[in-house]
Design a protein that fits this description.
By secondary structure, this protein is an alpha/beta fold.
């Protein structure tokens, strides 16, 4: 967005920033007319629209019999029924021929001197090996594996290895307590727990194994704990139930055929903290989720072949699942994983990483932007961040002041900002600008992504007026929507589909600008 692209929309109103014409020329969606036409098609015939994308975007073992069946009253949703596919094969194997030597993951440690990279070939070998480790330790298709690690490459490797053998992964944020971890392990009856002796965060050691031991105490269904050596901290050891990651990897073969999965087989469970009561195990399935993560990643971040992409989230959250691992790798992208925090060792850590790895696309949370803005402009000014071409925000609404600071001091008034709205339950981004097409306004998430039909309604279900606050609902399913609350389908139906029959209730308030 050139400096001249901000147009005032009237006295006292926020500025509107139009897409930069040079950016738009190379974008996947080049203007608002093109967006509107594609959007119209995606809403009027979602089955044809998503079938076309599924055929083009993913590699299938067997084509589906039926694109979509759903009943929002019973809360039943099925995409690509009868289709067979493997997520790990789509994220790794199919890229080997053309992108085998391309960097898949850049890992940046908490300590700035620690960096590792994995090419697609190397990542494929590591994932295949760990898939065999899981099998050797008793994991089978349909078993749940809980992963409780810091932001190390092994976290992505473990998740992809589960997908490879058809085990269901449940990643628990490494900052959660032993009690929170125990609740989640109990709810899904995990057979295997993958953890580490410890994790680094902001120069401190987090004792993960200690918390994991407390969490599994007295749980007979947890058969094995695989422990990564990360910090070298002394840990309690249970010879019957504990094995070291490195010992197991040495014994494992690096050939593991991907399991053939049905389109609606579970891929992962991710627990939302749940503001009320017990955490909800949000269940995402295989084909629809991967298609949606892949398509949103490509179009919203306008990803092109040699981009270096960095999402600063943790894999313990849905943002890490969809936009560090599955979306980027399905597109054959280079994705950066960061173990640390934005202010360690100095408040310019983000910008130091951008400079070091020549990051082009940067996706972070408004909380981080506000914290860094408080530290002042001098920190980004010390670094060469001119490689950036697109910025994104996620996790909460961004206030206009933070948006404008980000635009000016990080984007140098030339990078489009995609302010994205979505939820753990939605699997991927639902409302967002498309950077080459959508005019943006600080603090507004703008327009729905393809296939997403939102409405803003009053308490009584009638349509809210422009600028009137109401409830955000979605009228029809998109491929990334969660399928159930693990083990509690009635809770799923009650939470999301009972308030406004026939609509998905987001639980969020919104208004039409």
């Amino acid at each position: 967005m050139g400096k001249d692209s901000a147009t005032k929309t009237g006295a006292g109103e926020a500025q509107v920033f139009n897409p930069d014409s040079t950016f738009s020329q190379n974008a996947w969606v080049k203007n608002l007319e093109e967006y509107r036409e594609t959007y119209r098609r995606s809403i009027s015939d979602p089955e044809e629209f998503w079938a076309e994308r599924a055929e083009k975007t993913l590699s299938w073992t067997k084509k589906w019999d039926n694109v979509l069946e759903y009943d929002f009253v019973k809360a039943e949703i099925r995409w690509f029924d009868g289709g067979q596919i493997n997520v790990a094969q789509n994220c790794l194997d199919r890229h080997l021929k053309e992108r085998g030597d391309k960097t898949a993951i850049i890992w940046e440690g908490d300590n700035p001197d620690e960096t590792k990279t994995f090419t697609y070939k190397e990542l494929h070998a590591e994932v295949s090996k760990f898939a065999n480790v899981l099998k050797n330790n008793g994991a089978q298709k349909g078993d749940v594996v809980t992963i409780y690690l810091g932001m190390v490459p092994e976290l992505a490797i473990a998740a992809l290895a589960c997908a490879r053998i058809g085990a269901i992964h449940s990643v628990v944020f490494g900052g959660f307590s032993a009690d929170s971890l125990r609740d989640r392990i109990l709810d899904c009856s995990a057979k295997i727990v993958v953890t580490a002796d410890g994790a680094y965060r902001g120069g401190k050691v987090i004792p993960l194994k200690e918390a994991a031991d407390k969490a599994v105490a007295g749980l007979p269904f947890v058969e094995q704990m695989i422990v990564l050596k990360r910090t070298g901290t002394d840990v309690e050891w249970n010879n019957g139930r504990n094995v070291w990651w490195h010992d197991e990897m040495e014994k494992a073969d690096d050939l593991c055929e991907p399991e053939v999965m049905e389109a609606e087989d579970p891929l992962f469970i991710l627990y939302t903290s749940g503001s009320t009561g017990k955490p909800k195990g949000v269940l995402h399935t295989t084909a629809g989720y991967l298609l949606y993560a892949s398509e949103t990643f490509k179009h919203i971040f306008d990803y092109h072949e040699n981009d270096i992409y960095w999402c600063t989230a943790d894999l313990g959250w849905i943002t890490g699942h969809s936009y560090i691992v599955y979306g980027p790798l399905a597109n054959g992208a280079t994705t950066l994983m960061f173990e640390g925090i934005p202010t360690y060792p100095e408040p310019d850590r983000f910008w130091q990483v951008v400079e070091k790895h020549k990051v082009n696309i940067f996706y972070t949370a408004p909380t981080a932007i506000r914290a860094l803005a408080r530290e002042g402009e001098k920190w980004p000014e010390k670094r060469d961040i001119s490689s950036l071409r697109l910025l994104g925000t996620v996790g909460e609404p961004i206030n206009p002041e933070a948006w404008l600071w980000y635009h000016k001091h990080i984007g140098h008034e030339t990078c489009p900002i995609v302010d994205t709205w979505w939820q753990t339950e939605t699997g991927g981004i639902l409302i967002t600008p498309l950077p080459g097409a959508t005019p943006t306004k600080p603090g507004s998430a703008t327009l729905p992504f393809f296939g997403v039909e939102p409405a803003i309604i009053r308490q009584d279900g009638s349509q809210a007026d422009v600028n009137e606050n109401g409830y955000l609902v979605i009228n029809q399913p998109w491929p990334g929507i969660m399928r159930t609350v693990f083990g509690h389908h009635e809770r799923f139906r009650e939470t999301y589909f009972s308030q406004y029959p026939g609509k998905y209730f987001t639980g969020d308030g919104a208004r039409v600008d």
